Amino acid sequence: MTIQLFSEETTQTRWRDRMRARRAILASSRLAKAKPERIERVIGKWASKYPVTDMETARTDRAAVCSVSERARSQEGCLLRSIAVARAAKYRRRSITWCSGFALEPFRGHAWVEVGGVPVSENVEIADYTKSLEVRARGDADVSAASGESAGAGLLEPDRMMEPPPAAPVRPRDLFGLAKDKRLLVVAALMALVGSGLTLLIPGFIAKFFSDGSFSLPSLGWIGVFLGVLLASGVAMVFQYYYLQKVGETIVRDARGKLSNHLLRLQIKEYDERSAGDLVSRVAADTSSLRTGFLQIFVACTTGFPLVIGTCALMLFLDPFLMGTALALIVGLGFVLFAVSRLIQGASLVAQQKLGSLTSQVQRDMGGIRTIRATNATDSEASMLEGRVEDAWQAGLKMAKVQSIVSPIANIGFQLSAIVVILVGAYRTSIGAMSISELVQFAALLFILVSPLGQMASALSQLHSSLGSLQRINEILDLPREDELDMANLLSPELLKTLEASAKPNAPAIEFDDVVFTYGTREFGQEMDDADSLVLHKLNLQVPEGKRVAIVGPSGAGKSTVLQLIERFYDVNRGAVRVFGKDIRDYSRSDLRDVLGYVEQDAPVLSGSLRENLTLGLGDVGDDRCMEALERVNLGYLATRSEQGLDGPVGESGASLSGGERQRLAIARALLSNKRILLFDEATANLDSHNERQIGDVLRNMAGNRTVLVVAHRLSTIMDADLIHVLEHGRLVASGTHSELVVKSQIYRNLASEQHLV
Ligand SMILES: Nc1ncnc2c1ncn2[C@@H]1O[C@H](COP(=O)(O)OP(=O)(O)OP(=O)(O)O)[C@@H](O)[C@H]1O
């Protein structure tokens, strides 16, 4: 009988904190086995060494540790959790004081005791480890009084109860952080500085024409140098442009690579909740916007900014008063522009979202074009598409409105400022405060200032739009990858060995042990007794190794869900699924899937060649083996149909294959993969009776070497299975062979008689 101590803390914690907490728990596990005195000594040492209190961080640590301590929900586990909190705090080198209250007196005011899921005591006050052992003893005594059977109260599986928080807001420096090749940036910046410096020499040359207060041509040598300076600044710009474009393209490549790679590795539930089109638009459009924003800002900072500073310095040198006037006007204008451009970020985010929904609508229509035509829904879909186009247009227009305000404000503002400055300058010339040559130089500098200021204004508006894109990209990158949530990837080899050793010998190939599951996400601590929303209710079933086992039952009973849980596309809320005696959460998902072959209900075929589909995930497989697998499912003719043989295309999503051919191709892939367990979800539903019989024979011959679990509606395909499980409303209602079930299960008998099998 186990006693569980649950934290009452609500644990809506960032997944990054949870990952760190997992490591803290794992790192603590060895220490938890130490003697109590040593544990207290270690925690005490940490507590005194890192005494800075930061309640918020401490709370985060504690919440994170509590949320991942599914494994630690035992008396020892509570201690483990306490150590882990202290350790997490130690890693952060802060906030130990508050944690130590939890760590040194692990259970005071923070926990209640459950026995087999039944709360037997609330808010137990335990001062130290020794006392906690006494409570365990008391708890054991209480067990006989309590029911012993789990009441189902308590916590959910940790990964499922926390939604990732919204992505943190992005800052301009995040955009700069995207450029990895800093050397190229330095070269580009140097070229920009050279170009800007040379440009600043130009007003000096112009002033040469007015060197003695009236117009006169300078010497040919001066003109030659002038042209040389122009040429050199042009060459510097060419190099700057090329290097910058290279950095920009690299940013797009890196962002696309990282994002698309991450997209392929998200948890399955993310694909359930998001639209494919929106994800595609993030990979295509948002990444391009990063490049534009980065380039514009970089040019503004390296060319525009030094030019502004240089011109301002020269203007200051020529006439400080006139410069002060110009500066006041420019700063005022800058404030107005900044305020307006902030509106662009919001508008841009909306515009990109609308573009995303337009892309997903197009994708939806292209994917279901036959259904749309056949149901005469072309017009209604077209009008929906037009609606999305209209929305995207509206959002683009809104952004254009804001953007179109920025440009005229900048132009008119600058023209007015220039007029004011020149008038003030003319007045100062008239009173002898500056010479004509100085006024000409000042005016030339003022006009040089136009281009960098314009650059900076447009960069500012693009910056907000690019930050919007970066935020949409980060939203996806911030989602945890499936493998990052695999406990097994964090375990030390020693611990892994211990887990291997703990696997039960002679265990069934697959075992469901009291599995409770729902697709919905639940709040922390929310009860699991809402039967209506549960897909599986305390499901217990076994699939013996080497046997052919079937799951049957009415539609919606949870049959496909059983297979998806075995594949660990989703995690159970309670109970455990075991494969060869080991909890599937103790495998890494990739190791688990190495032993499982799975043919989905709709047997999707990927665009590409026959060979690509057959050898998906298998690496190099010889032609002979491919052909053998195809022959086994009666598909040998596909390889001879096209001149390209196995490399012949199968069309977009296998469009050039019939439904039955698609299913047989998926089965051939599963056979080729040679996995120890094969899962078939309605895999023969589209086959004619001849092919169905042939594939049935193949599967029958494999029994003994392979374990086969089949979900089937057509009972004729599984009548001779070694074992049949009958599911109804997520519960196992009967198990046995066909002849046994016909006698003992009403539901099975009904299914069989509907199909004229009894
Ligand atoms: N991704 C999902 N998100 C939310 N609910 C789901 C999801 N997949 C299935 N369900 C729901 O879970 C329940 C069980 O579905 P499941 O596909 O396992 O049933 P099934 O027995 O295989 O049905 P069928 O024989 O019709 O294929 C159904 O009520 C279904 O609507």
From TrEMBL:
Localization in the cell: Cell membrane
The organism's place on the tree of life at top rank: Bacteria
Residues making up the signal peptide according to the UniProt record: none
Organism annotation: Peptidiphaga gingivicola
This protein's UniProt keywords: ATP-binding, Cell membrane, Membrane, Nucleotide-binding, Transmembrane, Transmembrane helix, Transport
Family the UniProt entry places it in: Belongs to the ABC transporter superfamily. Lipid exporter (TC 3.A.1.106) family.
Lineage: Bacteria, Bacillati, Actinomycetota, Actinomycetes, Actinomycetales
Pfam families attached to this UniProt entry: ABC_membrane, ABC_tran, Transglut_core3
Family matches, as PANTHER family: ATP-BINDING CASSETTE SUB-FAMILY B MEMBER 10, MITOCHONDRIAL, ATP-DEPENDENT PERMEASE MDL1, MITOCHONDRIAL
Name listed for the protein in its UniProt record: ABC transporter
InterPro entries referenced in this protein's UniProt entry, alphabetically: AAA+_ATPase (IPR003593), ABC1_TM_dom (IPR011527), ABC1_TM_sf (IPR036640), ABC_transporter-like_ATP-bd (IPR003439), ABC_transporter-like_CS (IPR017871), McjB-like (IPR053521), McjB_C (IPR032708), P-loop_NTPase (IPR027417)
PROSITE patterns: ABC_TM1F, ABC_TRANSPORTER_1, ABC_TRANSPORTER_2
Domain ABC transporter: 510-754
GO cellular component terms listed in the entry, alphabetical order: plasma membrane
Membrane topology annotation: Multi-pass membrane protein
Transmembrane domains' residue ranges: 184-207, 219-244, 297-318, 324-344, 405-427
